[in-house]
Amino acid sequence: MNAWRRCAPHSRRTADVQVDAIRFESLAEDALLLRFGDRIDPLLNARVHAAVAILQRLQPALECVPAYASVLLRFDPLAWRSTDAATPHQMLERAARAALAGPETPAETTRQHEIPVCYGGAHGPDLAAVAQHLGLSIEQVIARHVAAGYRVAMLGFAPGFPYLLGLDPALAMPRRPDPRQRVPAGSVAIGGAQTGIYPAPLPGGWQLIGRTPLRLFDVAATPPSRLAAGDRVRFRAIDEDEFRHLHLDAEPRR
Amino acid sequence: MSVSVLKPGLLSTLQDGGRRGHAAIGVGRAGAMDVPAWRLANALVGNRGNEAAIECTLVGPTLRFEHSAWIALTGAPIAARIGAFELPVWTACHVPAGSVLQLGSMAVGCRSYLAVRGGFDVAPVLGSRSSDLHAGLGHALQAGEVLPIGGEPAEPDGPAGDPRALTWRLDPQPWFDFAQAPIALLPGSHAAQLDDASRRQLVDARFRIGKDSNRTASRLDGPTLRLRAPLELISEAALPGTVQLPPSGQPIVLMAEAPVTGGYPRIGQVAAVDLPRLAQRRPGDTACFRHGTLEQAMTRLLRREQALDTLLKHIAQRLQRDGCTRA
Does 2.40.100.10 match the CATH number of domain A112-250? Predict the structure, then answer.
């Protein structure tokens, strides 16, 4: 099973935003939520990314916040006042519906990333326990984690933290009952049916299986986050020597 | 031009209008918790508008001004002195070079703003000078730190060495909520899933601001609220003002440093116009809610923005008349 191969052709058919299936919800004076569904599903998430691409092109002043199956629009309500009786939220909903129903078919601009990961040992202190829990060998866990293609469903929790879709279902693993106070930056982890990467030292309850030497978030870089929602990701297993070598390169330049 | 931090106070951070446009990469807005108070503090010192000010929490810092400066204090009424001179709040004061400003505690409220003419001019991060402790951007002020100030030193046009205040000051009302009136709550996506008793309690009960409240969230201690049935939700965008119901049943209101995504049921949304009032409730203070509509909330917000704009213009005119405008 490879979720990446399953979802990729759909996400390239960019017309299938399916605007009629979107529920619009006014969350706050300056916030309108577009809900595409209520489950974690690569198809719904692909619609989210397609919608964001269209909206950002046609309404650049809007702030779009993509999530698994929704997009939040934050806007200036004073800029969306109308002469008729429509509220700013109604005006924005009309504009968004028109944009998403229109002939706009943004080119698939998905970026691909290869993230080197040193699995196990001190970098992945939970790998052995994960393998045991799943009834797999350590090598099988690594092989399956590397084999899958992933898509960044959304960023959240902390600056630059990617929630990745596409984890092999055989690797789904409950969170730790005792979250760690501090997870090292770069830790690659499994939490339920998802995998993610801690961009900075953070508290965390996901199972740590490895660590990347790459910096995922750097406020001095442009853009500050290496990964963006909608990007595709693959992992590559590296050894300790390569980790150390790449880690030095990844140190922030001052 | 600079200011040295001698004592940091309880939790003092630099805040401006916040960091916009980065939620998609997991970076929230942060910014001043009581935006009107922050804007008025900047206006009182003749700033243009988005300059960073110090947001003090419960107990303010002690600062030494290495150069003469115009400063203003707004928000929660805070004790402030330079030697024997007690500084009035909601007005501008001229402080001579070498002054040590001691900010004390607040009689009521939770957050005061100290603006300086020229603004605290630290390097912006992603377009803002706001500290976002939740996101790990910026930091709380520390003893020994030196904060640069933008612009030129204020010309001492009074007797050197004596701090002095303008002859006029703003009425803190309606900008500071001494009455702690109920807070308007817009319907949340999952409010209908609360059980009957909880739906009533949300607006009938008196909640207390929890002691672990901070710039990320105000925690509400009170009756335990329950959903009719548990909801399995996936993460979606979160906002300041969102009232979430975690499994404990004690609601939390997300504040300026709200995480950009969240997965708890949202049982309400605090009207934007009332968020600064909630931000001024300190741990132990009470909070009551009342139902409101989005339409009412928009009208109140618009009215407040108009009142604030008018006041900002009056302040600018008055400063010009008094010869206190920025060079």
Answer: yes
